[in-house]
Amino acid sequence: MTSVTQCEALRRKAEVKLKEEITRQKEACADINPNVRRIAFMLSTLDLAYNVLISTHVVMVMNTGSTLEQDKHAKYMEQVGKAVEEARNDATAITLPNNYKT
What's the CA gap between 41 and 99, in Å, rounded? Predict the structure, then answer.
């Protein structure tokens, strides 16, 4: 079983990776002529990074004997979810089929 400090280290790495993906996604979406294929790929990597972060957080919570319903964990999950949802919405608006130029 993984120790709490190892879980925290894994979660920190996952947080950094997710923040990098969000930053890349926002930069790609802010481009004057965004590359739709690139953004669609980045959207899938964003989802993967989010899933990894959530998984590592759940394992850490389980190892500490806490529950996800505790206020600090609920707030953390909500903050992370909002950041990902914002980046996902920006990317989805660009990658929708009616935005393709013919």
Answer: 16
CB contact at 8 A, 66 and 73:
yes
Residues 80-90 pLDDT 10s: 999 999 999 88
**C-beta of residue 46 within 8 angstroms of C-beta of residue 91:** yes
Q: By the 8 A CB rule, do 11 and 80 touch?
A: no
Per residue in 50-60, pLDDT tens?
Answer: 999 999 999 88
Q: Which of 44, 33, 43 is nearest to 101 (CA)?
A: 33
Q: 71-95 vs 4-30: helix axis angle to the nearest 10?
A: 30
What is the chain's alpha carbon radius of gyration, rounded to the nearest angstrom? 16
Q: What is the pLDDT of residues 19-28, one digit of tens each?
A: 999 999 999 8
pTM: 0.84
Closest CA to 58 of 84, 85, 50: 50
